[in-house]
Amino acid sequence: MKQLSSGEIRQMFLDFFKSKGHAIEPSASLIPVDDPTLLWINSGVATLKKYFDGTVVPKNPRITNAQKSIRTNDIENVGKTARHLTFFEMLGNFSVGDYFKKEVIPWAWEFLTSDQWLGLDKDKLYVTVYPKDQDAKAIWEQTGVPASHIFEVEDNFWDIGEGPSGPDTEIFYDRGQSFSDLPEDDPENYPGGENERYEEIWNIVFSQYNHLPDGRYVDQPHKNIDTGMGLERLVSVIQGTKTNFETDLFMPIIKATEKMSAGHVYGEDKQADVAFKIIADHARTVTFAIGDGALPSNEGRGYVLRRLIRRAAVNGSRLGIQGAFLYKLVPVVGEIMASYYPEINRNQDFIEKVIHSEEDRFQETLNAGMALLSQTITELKAKGETEIPGATAFKLFDTFGFPVELTKEIAGDQGVDVDMKGYEQNMQAQRERARAARGDAQSMGSQDKTLMAIKTPSKFTGWTDLADQATLMDLLQDDTEKERVEAGTAQLIFDQTPFYAEMGGQVADHGTILDDNGTVVAKVVDVQHAPNGQNLHTVEVENTLKKGATYTLQVDTDRRRKVSMNHTATHLLDQALRQVLGEHTHQAGSLVEPTYLRFDFTNFGQVTPEQLRQVEQVVNEQIWRQLPITWREMPIEEAKKQGAIAMFGDKYGDTVRVVTIGDFNREFDGGTHPTNTAALGLFKITGESGIGAGIRRIEAVTSQEAYEYLTQQQDELAQAANTLKIDQVANVPAKVEQLQAELKASQKTVEGLQAKLAAQEAAGIFDHSEQAGAHTLIAKAVKVAGMNELRQLADQWRTKQASDVLVLATANDGKVSLLVAASEAANQAGIKAGALIKAIAPAIGGGGGGRPDLAQAGGKNPAGIADALAQAKQVLAQA
């Protein structure tokens, strides 16, 4: 077998399919663009949906790629099996209505077995096919695969519910008897069965049907090929390793981790090996995910990152690594992947900063988790019990990042088991919640046969003209080609048009369509791109439209002017954010409307008011400099050499349009702009907020809307001055500071009076305690302002050592505050304030908790105070 590196294998795959006429698509961002059905890009085809569902017809129907991907449905299995990974690369070749089975099967065999390419041993390759797909079976045999190496498997049918579907064929490599984990006669001991011997390396899907909502399968207008080959598995086969982790994709990370561990060496201890694998996998995942703009948080993909970093940290501690360490593996990952993913090294400092910060933050959580586990074990032993509840084990896993195996290991050292059945029930409930949250959104739409068939050329003239004569080439209504339409909503394609189609966040042009007499025959309410790239006008028909007739197309010039100004503002804002916040900042989306703009961007942490003011200043300076705005089309490589900024996550053709704003900004862009920044007049940020994990949003206005916004603020400030009875608005801040100081002084006076009232209330309540079983108790309802005053009373009680246990309650405005305090002696005797308050809080219609020595609760039933105090005495009497 050839000795090949992972980089050589990846490039060889792309070169092979390039030789078969395929266009190489670069790997897209792991963060899906305009696809709410996916948390992460999880396959090669996920980035090509627009081609397969017919939304866009590609320039070349033959496509190949090496796509970075993340799948997180089996995180807990990573490190325990030879194959489970969260981050992986999927090699794929795709046909969009071009070649099919008779081409793709021989190509797959050629790539795998030809000496010019991988040169694998033919005798070690096996394939599976769908039983009803005898065509595929026959083609495999014609290609040279013996019938004894072809297996019919019922599961070989790819189906996601509604949408594209079809049979598939899978290719397996026989790794030899030494890898067998099953008896020879085991029914799963065959290619396609659940075993370790036969490694699946390639899956080819024949996407030929459309699965309809009523359950029927019908032929797709275009039959497609969708293949996937996991790079890590293929590298493992070629490099002859036992698992994915001994390959050149992982071993440098494992070796670097060894040096930081407490003397552990990979391959010498099974438990340590699991930790090494988890760390290596998770280091790759978080490095690439953060590099693509994801940031740790408590929801969505940010939660996945947080969980992975914490899981790596826990396993680092199992290897004896002290403190933060995962961030130190970022340059190792970058070096391994540098040949195809140089962006990791470019963003190394930022990625390290994010991971290091998250690791430091987790140390406190890790300690809290260990404390909870220790406390749980202690309480179980005190009760004579020997099993940690499943809910507690799941909380340790879900909240603190503890793998259940670690919980079992620590508990086992103390002679305690874990309720795994209860743990699995909690885990299953979480999976069901996640599944429900994803909803029923289709992962791929159905092809629109009518629109896909329209290939009429159409030219956009709107860069220079906002009115134009054009011939109506295609007229559709209700997804049907028409010769004429007299009313209702219709879709139109002209031979040329000045109407801009929505793209890149810029909304579509609106306007009118007029006949030869100057009569308005339709109003344009939307423009989108048809599958073959034409501008597709959605119109409300007012008079008869005829296919083949000539019309005047008139864009709403005022709307276009305002939209164009706001689009330019997004370019200025994008560049200003990079200058102020750093080059790690990426555009994550935008919306350009006539009256405002919205700009989403990645940033680690909140943007301060000072930074926002600085960004605003930078943008306005470029407006006041009156910079010229120019644009021209050029080869993409030339644009890159000129330093043009590409939209993060977007893909581009060989020729791109580059918009240049003076010496300040140069970007790939397909939108409209004025010819000079002076046209914007003024730029004003109206809001900044967080909208997701590591994603911030700025809303802003320009020109007339900016003036109106500032005028409104001036009016509101004048109103405030009038209310405060001052002459000059400039004096409003000083007056507000004065009022705040007076309010603060008044609050201190109130607090002092409340403390005196609490002291008066305390006079006498600590003089007499009552006996409750073996303990002394003071249980009283008092008249104070709230919980702060109850805590002050508890401090006095503790100083006086008036009783073993104190229970106090107060009611104000229908709300009850309840407090329980326990002395040190009571704690030693097993009385816990937190447990006692949980027992009595239901009487006041509430709940609470706290420490063993002090706990508090709130409720909405003042009538239950007497019952709560009486129950406290009963609980103590029985303790």
TrEMBL record:
Residues 736-763 form a coiled coil. The keyword Calcium does not apply. PROSITE patterns: AA_TRNA_LIGASE_II_ALA. It is an enzyme of class 6 (ligase). GO terms for molecular function: alanine-tRNA ligase activity. It holds the Pfam family tRNA_SAD. It catalyses: tRNA(Ala) + L-alanine + ATP = L-alanyl-tRNA(Ala) + AMP + diphosphate. SMART domains: tRNA_SAD (SM00863). Consists of three domains; the N-terminal catalytic domain, the editing domain and the C-terminal C-Ala domain. The editing domain removes incorrectly charged amino acids, while the C-Ala domain, along with tRNA(Ala), serves as a bridge to cooperatively bring together the editing and aminoacylation centers thus stimulating deacylation of misacylated tRNAs. Catalyzes the attachment of alanine to tRNA(Ala) in a two-step reaction: alanine is first activated by ATP to form Ala-AMP and then transferred to the acceptor end of tRNA(Ala). Also edits incorrectly charged Ser-tRNA(Ala) and Gly-tRNA(Ala) via its editing domain. This is Alanine--tRNA ligase. It comes from Lacticaseibacillus suilingensis.
